[in-house]
Amino acid sequence: MISFYDVPGEFGHAMEGAQYGFESLSFIITETQPGGGPPLHVHECEEAHVLLEGKATYMIGDQKFTVEGPYVVNIPAGVPHTFVNAGSQPLRLIGVLPASRIHYKELGPNPLAKKR
After folding, report:
1. Does residue 115 carry a pLDDT above 80?
2. Edge to edge, what strands does the sheet with 81-85 contain?
3. Which of 74, 65, 68, 46 lies closest to 112 in space, CA to CA?
4. Does the N-terminal peptide bond of residue 70 adopt cis geometry, omega within 30 degrees of 0?
5. Is the pTM of this model over 0.85?
């Protein structure tokens, strides 16, 4: 799997399904530190976040909400989104995308993350 780090505080692995024999399934596995999260971004396909443990504040389009794991979040295709770890412990989640390749377009910094 490909490793990545997004400032501030999101470490993860991406598995594009095509490299592992999947025709329409890819995964992103992350561990995000308190206050951390990915940049604002968009995917061509829908995405499910399986929040295993932790507390996350999401921004999906113009909606903002906070959830605690275990929880499943539905992110529609083409909708800008991000999250931030709103808890005091690491947040663990699995992103599931119904595509053999992960299309990821970064739109800008995470608007939920506090400036350092």
Report:
1. no
2. 63-68, 55-60, 81-85, 40-42, 105-108
3. 65
4. yes
5. yes
